[in-house]
Description:
Largest sheet: 6 strands, mixed
Structural class: alpha/beta
Strand order of the largest sheet: 6-7-8-3-9-10
Number of helices: 19
Order of helices and strands: HHHHHHHHHHEEEHEEHEHHHHEHEEEHH
Distance between the termini: 71 Å
CATH class of the domain at 2-312: Mainly Alpha
Number of strands: 10
CATH architecture of the domain at 2-312: Up-down Bundle
Shape: elongated
Radius of gyration: 35 Å
CATH superfamily of the domain at 2-312: ABC transporter type 1, transmembrane domain
Helix content: 55-70%
Amino acid sequence: MLLYKRLLHYVKPYVSQILLAALCTALATACTLMVAPFVGFVFKVIEDKNILWLNYAALGMLGLYFVKGLFTYGQEYLSYFVINRVIVDLRNKVYEHLQDMSLDFYTRWNTGELVSRTMNDIATLQTALFAGFVAIVPQSALLVGLLVYIFWLNWRLSLLTLIALPLIIHVIRLFAHELREISEGVQQKTADLTSHLTETISQIRVVKSFSMEKRETDKFRKETEKFFGVNMRAVQILATQSPVIALLQAAAIIAIVWYGGVEIINGSLTLPKLIAFATALGIMTDPGNTLSKAYSIIQQGMASAKRIFEITDITPSIKDAANAIELPNIHGAIEFQNISFAYEKENVLRNISFFTNPGEMIAIVGRTGSGKSTVMNLLLRFFDPSAGRILIDGFDIKQVKIASLRRQIAVVPQEIALFRGTIGDNIAYGKMDAGQEEIVSAAKLANIHYFIDNLPEKYNTEVGERGVKLSGGERQRIAIARAILRDPRILILDEATSSLDAETELLIREALERLMHGRTSFVVAHRLYTVEKAHKIIVLDNGRIVEAGTHSELIAKNGLYRHLFEIQFRNKA
């Protein structure tokens, strides 16, 4: 019942359309209810051999179906309008919620699973809503109207009908309950398939480079076979339900016709009334079958609704404080005060403390897994520390609005993934109101303008999904241009020149040095010769700061930094 109430929240904005659809449903139902009396009247006219009234009756029946068609159109159009709007609103809500979720959420949830719940589960729910609005509401109204009519015709035959009705309803509920449980399994297998598909397509270069196509195909076939098995179990229930319900309906109709025949023989019932009654029963079988199938479909939709709301019920672990303030334009003084951070009970950082003056370049170095990227993730508030504070110009970043913090930071990651669209769109991603001159200027500083200008479509060139049409170096230079255009107070560079050739790297390094001037810059360095000019180098090992100082100071200490530097220098030589 709670699921139904939650779905009603998305239906409420469209009450006027629902009421109008209900009016059309009532009028269409009234037209349908007039069919049985019309049939009885036609047979009476035939018995009386009145050709004139037979002609009128035929024209009247045709007109009745025409009017019914108009109201049915109105009911279905308005119902589909409401359903499609509800689905659009719900899908937008789920996507908005996913955008608000913290990064730790995405470490726990598979991308394919999220895609499946956003697309497949909502599509299943859409089908269920169709069944509810387009089938259950009008067919229930029709069924109630027919029950009233047959009671008016003959209450004894009607009571016989009602004896069979509870048994049919009970059987429908049994089928629907089992189908709902199986539907959760069907949707989960759909999510597993989507996950496998998403993963292998996004990693297709790796698959092909290791000649693993057959292995991945075999794995996919196993998943599709599992999906087939679970899906066929659901089909089996649906296929069994129809003949069972039809058998119960047929048994009820046969009993009623037999009893009606006895009543005619005894003289307590006329043949036209029995024909009208039988016609009404014949009409009732259609809404009966429709309702039984619709109820099963709705149960499948409720299984999907449960999976959808499982996502929207998760609250972000990182969000604005209740009294968060807007971070003003900053100078870039940053202080880490005794920062510790643990991820799933595993200590990643321990008692990290350092201070940077505005405009300084700070290098974060260390072995793989030492916590370099985590330090930057905490500065961006992708995660919150388990202990300690991070201050920017004296403001605790947990007490300012996240958007106002991140607006003043630009990141150039090592692994660049562009968005589907044009090169110009990707450069302007962090500043969507940028003019063409600003975009070109940023591209020139990133040494990518000459390449772009020689393309047939220039800045309107499509980059493809994740920038697949461009080389790694081209993608990285576009990301640098994007950071340049943003004009941030704080820069985070994750070895931003690592994918460039030697000549281009030199040009980009010069551009970055100009860009970093006057801004607080963090360089997560893997190649230590790139950070010799840093104002301060922080050396991490096992989540702790083991050394800090300039390049010359650290070389003189003969510690971990010098050890790592000499290893890289020998390898480079």
